[in-house]
Amino acid sequence: MKRLRDWWSNPWGRPRALVAVTWLYIAWSIVPIAIAILFSFNAGKSRTVWQGFSTRWYWGDPTQSVLHDPALRSALEQSLKLAALDMAVSVPLGVALALGLTRWHGPGARPVNVLMLFPLVTPEIVMAVSLLLVFVTLYGIQLGTTAQLLGQVTFSVSYVVVIVRGRLLSIGKEYEEAATDLGASRVAALRLVLLPLLAPAIFASLMVVFALSIDDFVVTDYLSSDASTQTVPIQIYSSVRGTTTPALNALATVIVVATLLAVAFAYVVHRRFTAGDEAARGSALREIAAFDV
Amino acid sequence: MSEAKGGAVELVELRKRFGDVAAVDGVSLRIPAGEFFSLLGPSGCGKTTTLRLIAGLERPDGGRISLDGVDMAATPPHRRKVNTVFQNYALFPHLSVFDNVAFGLRRRRTSRNEINRRVGGVLEAVRLEGLEKRRPSQLSGGQQQRVALARALVLEPSVLLLDEPLGALDAKLRKALQLELKTIHEQFGITFVYVTHDQEEALTMSDRIAVMSDGRVEQVATPEEIYEEPATVFVADFLGISNLMTATAEGAHDGRCLLRLGESELHAARGEISARGEVRIVIRPERIRVEPYAPGGENRIPGMVERVVYLGSLEQLVIRLATGDVLQAIVVNDGEPKAFSQGVPVRVHLPAEALRVLPERPAGEVT
Question: What ipTM did this prediction achieve?
Answer without folding.
Answer: 0.80
